C-alpha cells in the first residue's frame, strides 16, 4: 500500500522569484540607483551655473542637494511599494547615514590637508635638528618633539595615579557618601574648565615659588595634569562600575582583603577600558597650546631638563612658525604643517600602543 504525504508536509524546492517593483519590496539595486540619480540631479544645476559663470563647481552644495533629493525619492518609492513602515525605516536610515557622512567630512578633510601640506618637510633634517641659529629655510623640530614627549610623560605620571586612586575611592570606598558626592561635583566642574585657566593656575603656582616670569617644562606638565585628571577619573570610574559585583563577592568569600581584591580582581578586569580612558586623556592634552605658552614658553634650542629653562613643544612650535613667519614665508609654513603631521602621528602611535597594552593585559575569558 502506498502512502502519499499530505500536501502541507511536502518540501517544494523552487527558485525564489526575482524581486521586482511590484512584489512589495524594492530590489537591492534600487537605493544605490536612486542615490546615483539623486547625485546626478544635484550636480546638474551647480554644473550649469559653474559653466555659465566660469567659477569652480560647488561640490559641497551639489552633494547636499543630492542627499536631500535621495531622501525624498527613497521615502516616496518605498511608501508606494513597501508601505509606510518600511518607508520610514529607509528614511531614518538615510538620515543617520547622511549624518555620519557629514561628521566624517571635517575629519577626512583635516587628515588629507595635514598630510598633503606636511609631507613637504617630512625629511631627515626635520627630525634630527632644532631651530637654533636657523633663519629661513632648513632647521627642524627635534627640540619640540622631545619637549612634547617629556612634558606629556610628566603630566601622565602626575595625573594617572591621582585619577586612578580617586576613581577607586569613589567606586569602592565612597559609595555615595558626602565626600564622594563632593569629589564627583568638583571633578565635573574641572572637566569643563578652559585650558587657559589650567595654564594660569600652573603659572600662578610656579610664580609664587620661583618668581614672576618663570617658564619651565614641569609647569606645563602641571597645567596638562590639571586637564587630564578629571578625564582619567570619569573614564576609570565608569570602567570600575562595569565590573560585576559577583567577582568582588567571590573574592571576599575566599577571604581576600578588599585592597587585594581591587588590585588583583577589579583593576585587571577593567584594564582595557582604563587604558583607553588614559589614552583619551593624553590625546586631549597633547595638542594644547595656550597653557604651554604661559608655562613652558618657547625656545629654539634643545632642553632635556623639565626643571630648568624654557621648553619647546610641538603645538607651540606649530603656532610660532605660522604666527611669526620670516623670509621666505614658505619655509615657516612648511615647518608648521610638518609639526602638525608629526603630532598626529604621535597620537596615533600612542593609541596603537594603548590598544596593544589593553589586549595583552585584559583578562582572558577562554579556557
From TrEMBL:
Q: Domain ABC transmembrane type-1, which positions?
A: 145-354
- Matching Gene3D superfamilies, A to Z? MetI-like
From which domain of life does this come? Bacteria
Name its cellular compartments.
Cell membrane
Q: Which segments cross the bilayer?
A: 29-47, 59-78, 99-120, 140-171, 183-210, 216-233, 265-286, 336-358
Q: Which InterPro entries match?
A: MetI-like, MetI-like_sf, Phosphate_PstA, Phosphate_transprt_permease
User: Which keywords describe this protein according to UniProt?
Assistant: Cell membrane, Membrane, Phosphate transport, Transmembrane, Transmembrane helix, Transport
Name the membrane topology term. Answer: Multi-pass membrane protein
Briefly state the protein's biological role: Part of the binding-protein-dependent transport system for phosphate; probably responsible for the translocation of the substrate across the membrane.
Q: Which family does it belong to?
A: Belongs to the binding-protein-dependent transport system permease family. CysTW subfamily.
Q: What is this protein called?
A: Phosphate transport system permease protein PstA
Organism whose genome encodes this protein: Microbacterium algeriense
* Gene that produces this protein: pstA
